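Translate sequence into structure tokens.
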Amino acid sequence: MFVSALPFNGVPAQRQRAVGWVSFAAAAVDGRTRPMRIEESGSMRIRLPRGAGAGLGAVLVNTAGGIACGDRFTVEVEAQADTNVTVATPAAEKVYRSDGPVSNLLVKLTAGAGARLDWLPQETILFDNARLDRQLEANVAEDGRLTLLEAVVFGRKARAERIVDGLFIDRWRIRRGSQLIYADTLRLNGAIADLLQKPSVGNGARAFATLIHVAPDAEARLESVREQLPSGQGCDAAASAWNGILAVRFCAFSIEALRAAICPFLVTFRGESLPRVWLS
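Result follows.
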């Protein structure tokens, strides 16, 4: 029996893709951080495991099981005045191969007056032929504190996978008040594995992480941070600071080496343990 892939009007059926949106806001109530607004649609969810401290830990979940072929996701997190919010993910986010469409992920973060917001998703793993356009926008109050960590891995080690063709666009824009203080755009297109072999790009590394810390004392922490950076063991790192911003870059040859470097670094830098989902 032959079944046509075309509808009766002869027009190819459109692939059904995942679309998700979540908007979350937290406020300070009696000295503790409490959820004030949760809005969800599609495949995006946010969960709030019970914690013992005054801060609030949130876990962002993509029930679609990954990103592929034109999926679209939007995440909005607002830490209102005097709150302490940490957002993590339960596992690595996988970006699957695409036959053409580009997937989009938009993250919007707000840290209010006296607030602390830590954005700590686990790594993003790009498969061969993955196509992802990711954008992060953040707005921090003059006395707010924002810590961002994003890690990306190109190809699956267990399959000795090389990204022969793919697209990865990563755009970060951070504002303090209404003034743009940090802008960074990475664009890798085509034979990404070959690009990463170049000394000026990755020098053969395939796992990378960037930490950006915006706070009134960010520059004062530079020397202590440099003392904490890993040396050798498959991961290189460097730090710099300017205009109330601290930036740390990690470059590793494997995800194991990258995690071995950033996990203890985060514990020392933040002065507290990692989110529990990082340890599961």
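Note: DSSP finds four helices and 17 strands in the chain.
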